[in-house]
Amino acid sequence: MNLTLKIWRQKGPNDKGQMVDYKVTDISEHMSFLEMMDVLNEQLVAKDEEPVAFDHDCREGICGMCSMYINGEAHGPDRGITTCQLHMRMFKDGETITIEPFRANAFPVIKDLVVDRMAFERIQQAGGFISVNTSGNTQDANAIPISKHAADDAMDAATCIGCGACVATCKNSSAMLFVSAKVSQYALLPQGQVEATDRVLNMVKQMDEEGFGNCTNTGACEVECPKGISLENIARMNREYLAASLKG
Fold it and tell me: What is the radius of gyration, based on Cα positions, of the chain?
């Protein structure tokens, strides 16, 4: 395939960016999207031009690093996948593909397609963990009875990889799907009950301080989420937050 790529180029956080057109040829439909970007960068390096900066790591749909906004959709036109799992057969020969970074005030652009998602890390640090008793009387987790339904729901919430597609998709740049997944992951399990009140209050407070917007109730975040995190988690977080606020 021969393609035209319209890519956002920005030298640094404080520089003015712009869309730049590139041509790539002889792209196999079996390539992943990131492999196609590799081909482009090889061509740019061969011409002594600056390659396009983009995030990637595992390239197996696990790490969530490959955050690209492709043709107006987070991670591109396919569903239930990350950018590294997107294949070029989803596009047509001669097509023009627009590639941008995830855009949100809480995700400032570092360079080109790379954004700073440390806001998610700070939210996690605010409460996305459990304290473990290491006194020598620690109870074996496998000895704690948990219902199958609760265990399944907790596991579904825990599949969130923190890629930020929910934020990029939401017109308010809301992080509620991400935060609710992290809250639900522990709220559904006995191990998470000890710190449940502080957890939801602290994580929601940090989310607001980071500058994320409010939930729009449109459900776009669930549709674009590569792991299919359910909106039910947002409802659960809201219930947890109300209960914690009343206790406080």
Answer: 20
